[in-house]
Amino acid sequence: MRGKKKQGKLIAITGPMFAGKTSKMIQLLDREKYSGNSVRLFKPKIDNRYSKTSVVTHKGEKLPAMTVTVDANGIDAIIKNSADCDVVGIDEAQFWPPELNLANTLNDFANSGKTVYVSILNKDHTGKPFNNTLEVLALADSIHSLTSICLKCGEDATFTQRISKGKEIFGSQIQVGGTESYEPRCRKCFVAKSRSAKGR
Ligand SMILES: [Zn+2]
Fold first, then answer.
1. How confident is the model at residue 5 (pLDDT cuts 50, 70, 90)?
2. 87 CA from centroid of ligand 1 (Å)
3. Residue 101, domain member (yes or no)
4. Closest to 57 (Cα-Cα) out of 15, 111, 21, 107
5. How far is the CA of 158 from the centre of ligand 1 (A)?
6. CB within 8 A of 73, min separation 6: which ones?
7. 92: annotated active-site residue
8. Is residue 82 one of the residues assigned to a domain?
9. Is residue 136 very low, low, confident or very high in pLDDT (cuts 50, 70, 90)?
């Protein structure tokens, strides 16, 4: 045993959309609060689907959050505002461009003794890893891998399909939306870009 310094860790929460990633984040951060730890939660400015000052789940649970821009200033804001807290939460980490190395910043936090929870979408709407997902998951000490329910067949869903009026559509990686634009699919029901382009 080496002294009293707390062991830091990086804990990822991943899965497709509608898998309850943010609910899990709120639950885990609430537990940290009850244990007496100071908690700070950050969310990207791009995502203002429900609330600008809190992180809110599809079910309406919420936790106060600081909104930061997904650029170098946002990274600085996270570092500055995390200085005096034990636990850092980062919601919707897939929106951070890979070149900003958010994963490295979070890894540094863990090395300095903080507990870091990061929620991140597993794949984009074409089934590929989303932005910095691979880095975040590789650096994590543990991963909560969540599934949703396939809207086509009811199996466990690990994919997120982008849809428009019930049809699969493809475009740029980042496009914020809810149930009108996305649905969870299992591996079998997920339509990949190439297959769809060939068939139509
Ligand atoms: Zn299915």
1. low
2. 37
3. yes
4. 21
5. 10
6. none
7. yes
8. yes
9. very high
Query: Which residue among the candidates 32, 61, 92, 180 is catalytic per the annotation?
Result: 92
- Containing domain of residue 18, as a range? 9-147
Q: Per the domain annotation, does 133 fall within a domain?
A: yes
Count of residues for the chain? 200
Residue 41 lies inside a defined structural domain of this protein? yes
Which residues have their alpha-adjacent CB atom under 5 A from ion ligand 1?
Answer: 150, 152-153, 155, 186, 189
Least confident of 90-94, 127-131, 168-172, 191-195: 191-195
pLDDT classification of 34: cutoffs 50, 70, 90: very high
pLDDT of 200 over the 90 cut: no
What is the DSSP annotation of 6-25? PPPEEEEEEESTTS-HHHHH
Q: 46: pLDDT confidence band, cut at 50, 70 and 90?
A: confident
Best CA proximity match to 180, nearest among 192, 167, 190, 171: 167
2 Cα to the center of ligand 1, angstroms? 50
9-29: pLDDT as tens digits: 999 999 999 999 999 999 999
Mean pLDDT, residues 149-165: 96
C-alpha dist (Å) from residue 156 to 36, 143, 150, 200: 36, 18, 6, 27
Domain count for the chain, please give it.
Answer: 1
- State the distance from the centre of ligand 1 to the C-alpha of 185, rounded, in angstroms: 5
CATH of the domain at 127: 3.40.50.300
Burial of 194 (0-12, 13-18, 19+ CB in 10 A): exposed
